[in-house]
Amino acid sequence: GESVGLHLPTLSVQEGDNSIINCAYSNSASDYFIWYKQESGKGPQFIIDIRSNMDKRQGQRVTVLLNKTVKHLSLQIAATQPGDSAVYFCAERSDYKLSFGAGTTVTVRA
Amino acid sequence: DAGVIQSPRHEVTEMGQEVTLRCKPISGHNSLFWYRQTMMRGLELLIYFNNNVPIDDSGMPEDRFSAKMPNASFSTLKIQPSEPRDSAVYFCASSLGGEETQYFGPGTRLLVL
After folding, report:
1. pLDDT one-digit tens code per residue, B30-73
2. Which residues, 6 or more positions from B63, have their beta carbon under 8 angstroms from its beta carbon?
3. Rounded distance between C-alpha atoms, residue B34 and residue B54, angstroms
4. Whose CA is closest to B93, among A66, A89, A28, A50?
5. Is the CB of A97 inside 8 Å of chain B's CB atoms?
6. In this complex, is the C-beta atom of A11 within 8 Å of any C-beta atom belonging to chain B?
7. Are A34 and A49 within 8 A, CB to CB?
8. I need a surface site. Which of B1, B15, B20, B84 has the fewest CB within 10 A?
């Protein structure tokens, strides 16, 4: 079946460096994509979203890129901070259904 | 602003017992979702309500699971009888509409012994 998957399960990054988290999706009918951050013991927290008619969207220290040609989504975090350590999930939506990737664990080194 | 509220935060029970998880969505949101998260299967949608009506329950594992939404500010997920394989973190999420951003609660960590 169709699924959302992540390229890398873990990412270690030096504090202050930029982080890039990648995600592949396979449902061409998905019209909306979201990145969530989940800290230990907490629920997924919305970070940023992008609709399928866009290829880039920027937030505060975060940028999401969407490449529909290769069905690839990425999250860039600028100047990574210790508080950015968490599991990051991409999700694709078709109608109301969110399909989540497996998650990438980001660890920030001091 | 209060986010999605779930209770209890942790639940430990014995196999065969009934478990009831509770959720209060964000005020004004008309869509509510129950998810289950495990290491093996990740985040899975169990059931989706819109305006208190169940729209999609195809993710509910089996008849032991049931969910209700008696009003716009309260929903329950019940497991009866519970089994060890039901151990997971259960999340409730709400949104302004079915196709709007979903906001998650803190989850209920369930352990069935």
Report:
1. 999 999 999 888 899 999 999 999 999 999 988 999 999 999 99
2. none
3. 11
4. A89
5. yes
6. no
7. yes
8. B1
